Amino acid sequence: MNTRVGTIGNAAPLVADAAPMIDPFGRAVTYLRVSVTDRCDFRCTYCMAENMTFLPKKDLLTLEELDRLCSAFIAKGVRKIRLTGGEPLVRKNIMYLVRQLGRQIGSGLEELTVTTNGSQLARHAEELYDCGVRRINVSLDTLDPEKFRRVTRWGDFAKVIEGIDAAQRAGLKIKLNAVALKDFNEAEMPDMLRFAHGRGMDLTVIETMPMGEIEEDRTDQYLPLSKLRADLERQFTFTDIDYQTGGPARYVRVAETGGRLGFITPLTHNFCESCNRVRLTCTGTLYMCLGQNDAADLRAALRSTEYDGLLHAAIDEAITRKPKGHDFIIDRTHNRPAVARHMSVTGG
Ligand code: SAM
Ligand code: SF4
Q: Which amino acid positions bind S-adenosyl-L-methionine, per UniProt (predicted)?
């Protein structure tokens, strides 16, 4: 057992009992994804409706509270934290949280990463590196600026490329994430692969997940990655590799480019049996599974006392409810999402 002693602000020292988190199916929970805001400066068509209603700012945990929550998870065995959203880099003063968490790298925490749309990356890249971040994910669904504007509704392709340039200059390793969208970027995938690998970046393709109401028909967007893979294999030679980043992607090595290509296939292949993750929202709600509605409120325990005992108990109770797997099925009869909340609430 790992006992951690720390202080929060001017509070008395905390002594946290820190039994590692093992769920009812024997999986150790070592990875925390934190959606630091539900807001975003883009409106990707598969992710959000154009007229999204966001949480009132007063409902958000402060960055100090998010730091305390994350620290409780680190004390309980979390080794990797990913900051996501919404768009994490649009949250005011977000670098405060990055710096605080970065200080814990090497003492409990092994890795701090960020998933971003890249729009604000140019101005934050160096500081991210300085805070200890070494790898980031940048979402990019197309290389065509006009199509980019269409899929993000509000995004500026040139700014994202500027962000990628700045991040690489700063020494950050980048993985590109592309959501595979039928009749949108299917034909572009070979170029995206060459682009990513030509710049020393991995590429991961993601199946659309039926989360939250959007304005389009999700069944129209859905492209099974088994089909995409078969199409790509007409041009490229893939070898399955054992590469693991702690996430759900399965990787291949591409002989022609020498780079890695990942597939995240929640619908065609269940990725649940090795799930080591839980997800925290910016209001302190913990989702034990991306594809289920059950959640635990950690905010009450966080705010009730400065001592972490109650918080640890609330986390332990939540982990006993981690389900075996998700329930992603597109309700084709009613065209309803399987999970009502948007991806931006819990982060990708
Ligand atoms: N705004 C940041 C970004 O886009 O990278 C971080 C949050 S975003 C919700 C995280 C990832 O989820 C992105 O790569 C995005 O493409 C993906 N995503 C969003 N909605 C999705 C959906 N319904 N199905 C599959 N992936 C989705
Ligand atoms: Fe914003 Fe990311 Fe969702 Fe696009 S995918 S709308 S960038 S949160």
A: 46, 86, 139, 209
Residue 215 C-alpha from the chain's centroid = 23
Contacts of 85 (CB under 8 A, 6+ apart): 35, 36, 37, 38, 39, 40, 91, 115, 282, 344, 347
Q: Which two tokens stand for residue 168?
A: 């690489």
Kindly give the pairing relationship between strand 285-287 and strand 260-264. Answer: unpaired
Q: What's the pTM value of the predicted model, to 2 decimals?
A: 0.91
Question: Relative to the CA of 40, which ligand 1 atom is closest?
Answer: 1
| Domains of the chain: residue spans and CATH | 5-346 (3.20.20.70)
Question: Measured from the CB, is residue 29 less than 6 Å from ligand 2?
Answer: no
The pLDDT of residue 336 is above 60: no
The answer to whether 123 and 162 have CB atoms below 8 angstroms apart is no
Q: State in Å: Cα 164 to ligand 1 middle.
A: 17
Per residue, the 3-state secondary structure of 198-255, as one string, reads HCCCEEEEECCCCECCCCCCHHHHECCHHHHHHHHCCCCCEEEECCCCCCCCEEEEEC
* Mutational pocket test of ligand 1: of 141, 179, 328, the residue with most ligand atoms within 8 Å of the beta carbon: 179
* DSSP 3-state of 280: strand
Cα distances (Å, whole numbers) of residue 332 to 183, 220, 270: 19, 11, 19
3-class DSSP state for residue 258? coil
For the chain, what's the residue count? 348
Give tens-digit pLDDT for 143-190: 999 999 999 999 999 999 999 999 999 999 999 999 999 999 999 999
Which amino acid belongs to residue 88? P
Pocket of ligand 1, candidates 37, 45, 113, 139: which has the most ligand atoms within 8 Å of its Cβ, to mutate? Answer: 139
**CB of 155 shorter than 6 A to ligand 1:** no
Answer for the pair 77, 18: CB distance below 8 angstroms, yes or no: yes
Which ligand 1 atom sits closest to the C-alpha of 218? 23
Percent with pLDDT over 90 in the chain: 75
Residue 338's pLDDT band (boundaries 50, 70, 90)? low
Whether 89 lines ligand 1, by a CB cut-off of 6 Å, is no
